[in-house]
Amino acid sequence: MHSATDNVEKRNGTVEVEEICLPYCIVVRLNFRNASLSFGFHMRIFTLILCFELKTTDSRSATVSVVKSILHSASLRLHSAESRNWTLFQPGRVCSRQPREMWSRTRFLLLAWTIVLLAGAPLSNGSQRPRLGGAVNIFSRYGYLSISMRVVPRNDTDTWIFREPTLDVFRNPTPVVVKQRQQAAVFDGDFHMEFCDNVRQLLQAYFRDFTFERLERPWRAFSASWSKAAIARHLGINSSFITGEHCYVLVRVARFRENQKLASAADSMILDEAVLRETENVTVGDTASVVRFIKHFGSHYIAAYVTGNSLYQVFVYTQQAYLRIKERLKTRGVADLSNIELSNYFSPWYAEHMGSIQAASGNRTVEAWAVERLRNQKLHGDGMLLKQLDSLLENEALLQLQLKTLAPIFKDPPRREWFLEVIDNYFKLWEVNM
User: Fold this and answer.
1) What burial class does residue 258 get, using C-beta atoms within 10 Å of its C-beta: 0-12 exposed, 13-18 middle, 19+ buried?
2) Contact (Cβ atoms closer than 8 angstroms) between residue 97 and residue 31
3) How far apart are CA 134 and CA 171, in angstroms?
4) CA–CA separation, 42 vs 30, rounded Å?
5) Which SMART domains match (predicted)?
6) Least C-beta-crowded within 10 Å: which of 119, 208, 277, 303?
């Protein structure tokens, strides 16, 4: 990584412009320390990052010109005793440099131009949503995937859904064409409740729609690092009920917004040439060669995903009350129960603890609406409530994810089998050690 910093003397401080080179992107960071801008706004530290996706030589050179024109328009001149260069970093190639010149005095136009460009510039992570066919390294964050995938409520105001580092290994990942329904449903989603004998089954139920090929317990990829307090917080219950003495019922309603699935299998898609060459460097019997490949290109690719939002609530029972309800529903079914009987099962009459209603995205507006409107009303069968909830549950969380291994991209069968063997062994190690 190359960086260069130039300082310009200002009346009330300095303006630092730092250029940082990253793979396939230019990052220009401007730090204003105690600088008095022309429109009279004082700021201690202001950092601005421009990030452009650069996939061809033409787009890289074009981006350099755009950034230069921005700085030109802003009249920002950098004075330096030595010459400065624009630097673009390309993996496996020497950085190319071109002379640059910038003008003095920072003005409001710089901010205006930058905001306009940022609004239209594609982010390297695809607007922080899952990228169909993109490759990810499951091992890099095993047990901590809830950090980079929005699957449980978080204490933040960001709107990202998926920010796990993703690499495009296929040239033509084509999604399945979704047929339009003739009549729009009032609520396109899913409602279910699951009976869980213990905490392990509760976590399994919550992540039931997440499947990672060759991984027997995919929920562990998210929750292996969670403490009892974290489990309680994410599921909306008191930590004193995370014990082996209680049973649980998970009730959840999910609204699907974006449903994407690959139309082709990995072995029928066109592989990126650089990735194809690297597959030939994997040596059968050499674990390190597989680890290097996974580190650079990933272990799995995104075969399908569903985004949207969901509301869920966990009810905690003693084993005696839980078995009674479970047997009752098993023999008669939900449809044969009266509204009063069903309401009693999910009330303090039977439940030892009623968890808080939570949205998978952490949207407090949705949660407040649910607490107010669903306290004494049933959602099931109420078209008006379903219609209101439909408008509230927006595209804010990851609801389903299917990951498949990159094994099919290895054309040589022995290499393919060796890749899978290493994957299997590492999964077993992670499950034991986490």
Assistant:
1) middle
2) no
3) 10
4) 15
5) MACPF (SM00457)
6) 119
Task: With H, G, I as helix, E, B as strand and everything else as coil, classify residue 285.
Answer: coil
Please name the helix (run of DSSP H) or strand (run of DSSP E) that holds residue 14, with its range, or none: strand 14-22
Run of H or E residues at 99? strand 96-99
According to DSSP, residue 103 is labeled: B
The answer to whether residues 292 and 350 touch, using CB atoms and an 8 Å cutoff, is no
Helix, coil or strand: residue 365: helix
- The CA-atom distances, in angstroms, between 426 and each of 17, 28, 167, 236, 430 are 44, 39, 21, 32, 6
Tokens 């650089």 label which residue?
274
- Where in the chain are the domains? 3-120, 134-433
Measured distance CA(296)–CA(245) in Å, rounded: 45
For every residue of 213-279, DSSP letters joined together read TT-S-TTHHHHTT--HHHHHHHHTS-GGG-STTEEEEEEEEEEEEEEEEBSS-GGGSPBPHHHHHHH
